[in-house]
TrEMBL record:
Molecular function GO terms recorded: acyl-CoA oxidase activity; FAD binding; fatty acid binding
Domain of life: Eukaryota
Location relative to the cell: Peroxisome
Residue numbers annotated as active site: E446
The Acyl-CoA oxidase C-alpha1 domain, residue ranges: 300-461
Acyl-coenzyme A oxidase N-terminal domain residues: 41-156
Source organism per UniProt: Ostreobium quekettii
GO process terms (BP): fatty acid beta-oxidation using acyl-CoA oxidase; lipid homeostasis
Pfam family, one: ACOX
Entry binding sites for FAD: T162, G201
Name used for this protein in its record: Acyl-coenzyme A oxidase
InterPro entries in the cross-refs: ACOX_C_alpha1, Acyl-CoA_ox_N, Acyl-CoA_Oxase/DH_mid-dom_sf, Acyl-CoA_oxidase, Acyl-CoA_oxidase_C, AcylCo_DH-like_C, AcylCoA_DH/ox_N_sf, AcylCoA_DH/oxidase_NM_dom_sf
Amino acid sequence: MAHFVDARTRVLQEESTKAVLSNCSDPKADLAAERARATFDVGELLHYLNGGREKVERKAHFAELISRTEWGNKSERYFQTREEQYVHGLKVAFGIWDFMKEKRLGISDGRVLRSLVNAPGGLELHIGMFIPSLISHANPEQQAKWLPKAQSLEIIGTYAQTELGHGTFVRGLETTATYDSDRQEFIVHSPTLTSTKWWPGGLGKTATHIILMARLFTKGKDYGPHAFIMQIRSLEDHKPLTGITIGDIGPKFGFNGVDNGFLRLEYVRIPREAMLMRFAKITPEGDYVPPPPANAKASYATMMYVRSTIVQDAGKFLSMAVTIATRYTSVRRQTTSSKGQRETQVLDYQSVAGSLLPLLATAYALHFTGKVMMQMYTDFERSRDRGDFSNLPELHAFSSGLKAMCTTITSEGIEKSRLLCGGHGYSRLSGLPDMYTSYVQNSTWEGDNNVMFLQTGRYLIKSLLGAMTGKTLSGYAKYLENAQFEMKERCNVSTEVQWLDPAAQLAAFRNRAARLCVDAAEQLKQESGGNPVFEGEPWDNSNVIVIKLAVAHSQYVIYKNFMDSLQGIRSRGELQPNTVRALADLQGLFGLTVLEREVGDMLESGYLSARQVKLLRAQQRALVKAVRPNAVPLVDAFGFLDYELSSALGRSDGDVYRGLLEMAQASPLNRTEEGPGWKAVLEAQMKKPGSRSRL
Ligand SMILES: CCCCCCCCCCCCCCCCCC(=O)SCCNC(=O)CCNC(=O)[C@H](O)C(C)(C)COP(=O)(O)OP(=O)(O)OC[C@H]1O[C@@H](n2cnc3c(N)ncnc32)[C@H](O)[C@@H]1OP(=O)(O)O
Ligand SMILES: Cc1cc2nc3c(=O)[nH]c(=O)nc-3n(C[C@H](O)[C@H](O)[C@H](O)COP(=O)(O)OP(=O)(O)OC[C@H]3O[C@@H](n4cnc5c(N)ncnc54)[C@H](O)[C@@H]3O)c2cc1C
């Protein structure tokens, strides 16, 4: 209702309004001013990072179209109940599917659409693991039978591996698949409480089929976990089939649009052909044909694929968080040193810039590593299809460590970004709380991060031991051939500016990793009482240093990828010198920030002196200052659309306060003026006779 305000009231107020307006913030102008400070061509970098102008325009076009659909409408996003989130997630998945069909789009456009809407639902695992498992584990006949059904959504699948009792230790799975040669069928069964499948996404209420990981028994012998495809729900009424109990596992920390589920199997029979037989096989008579030794871990291939995609996506999520925090801290003003002065943009506080700008640099570092990771996985697929599995161990070691490192960095980075946004960062309307709760599971799923680091550490120590016996190393572990030399090496930086040299930074990363590898191998030898043992007590007692080694190696790899990518850009002349300079500042800031955090190791080993650490810190601070003018342009170059960010604080026009006020209107609590508690509780209590007497 319109509210009448008399003239006297207005006049009295006028003076105070003027006083406040004189130094109140103008977020739109602030953001425009930040953009004017760019030292490079933002459009050029935007197109480079996003694969060209055409892709950038295509994404904007898609966003425009889907934001007008019912399933693409995000206005209710932060106010949905779990049930609403689940149903909405399904509508989004089908909406994207139909949109792709209608416009004849391919899988890469599909990924763009999924990322634009960003509403994970019951079909994630169908696309993320069920179809990839069929592609990597099924033989050609099985692919011909199942892939068309999966790709047309005639069936919906998930990947059922983890059980109540085992997630990490895949060899310890308890679900059994026992071959009955008389009927040429497997009996799949959950023999214990702990064998209950638990966690698979989409299993609770959506999936009709699963890739089941179960221990294969034939002729009384246990051959360990293998993959099977089986139906779990009727295609008529969606009810579970006989002998199958399924349900949703309940609310989680985040990711609640997904129906992660449980499953119990009671003596369910599936045909022999249900076993995915691209590598290992079972004959009708029940003889087990193992995969060739070179690809003994072939049944773990889907996990490696997913780990690679997780590495690829980590940079994107960190970039989104950093975009929101950078735009907001550029327009947020707080505290003035003298009366009448404008308040300071919070990004200009050293404590804010010193935390946020290194994260911005890290987001760029992860972008380049994500590209290298996917290239490596694609190369592996190509050689695998020719029967060559020789690069499997390195791919496994590389993807495990990077999966752990990149997801740790991104999870921590989203939370840091949220904290830097102060109170408004705690509001879901900022986009950051939901981003955190639905991202952080990346540290656990697809291999707990510590467990993944241990896999990388194992590979590195074995590589070092091999090199010590004269074996030639390849790929990213090559530096371990010189580990003995590195043990004696000292940093030769003697001025602040010398720390800007990428070679000096790389040498420090490499030296730290090499020394830690030698230390870890030594400790393992000691724990083993001689030759290193990679399991049991000796291994468990060496976990901390092995994880430290894997972290150091992964940091070296990420830095090296950044450096090599930039060198490539330079030598191919792909970007103008000003743009390359802005990227070089980021490379330096990323490198020196990580090294600064880890100086303890390098002081302890004697690689660095206290003076060199001082110089390093000074140069790192100088780089924070150098990057500051380009902060907003550098996040603009990521190219996130407002629709994609769904954040009141990350708006590209900077109008954050209007954004908060507008988005809050959709709160269900605002549907009536008096609110839902008035009739139900407040009125009765507050009008109760005697309720005004004091306690
Ligand atoms: C509309 C279109 C839109 C399109 C958009 C696309 C949408 C995408 C959506 C994405 C959604 C994705 C969601 C993903 C959800 C995650 C689901 C899960 O968690 S699923 C569940 C995930 N669960 C997990 O991740 C479980 C984690 N656990 C494991 O992976 C294993 O148990 C283990 C690796 C820890 C140990 O395995 P174990 O067998 O005990 O092995 P040992 O330690 O004894 O080592 C023995 C030897 O084996 C070697 N080796 C090992 N692995 C590999 C490998 N892969 N390769 C090669 N080698 C390997 C190892 O190096 C060693 O070699 P050596 O030294 O002897 O030479
Ligand atoms: C949101 C979400 C979705 C998921 N989706 C799926 C899915 O679709 N399909 C599916 O099959 N699974 C899924 N999972 C399961 C997931 O893959 C497992 O939770 C994960 O692999 C970790 O295993 P765990 O839960 O057994 O952890 P645990 O192994 O019990 O880990 C507990 C702790 O023990 C430590 N630890 C365990 N083993 C070792 C070791 N050997 N050495 C040193 N430390 C060790 C870990 O580091 C961790 O700190 C999902 C999980 C989540 C959270």
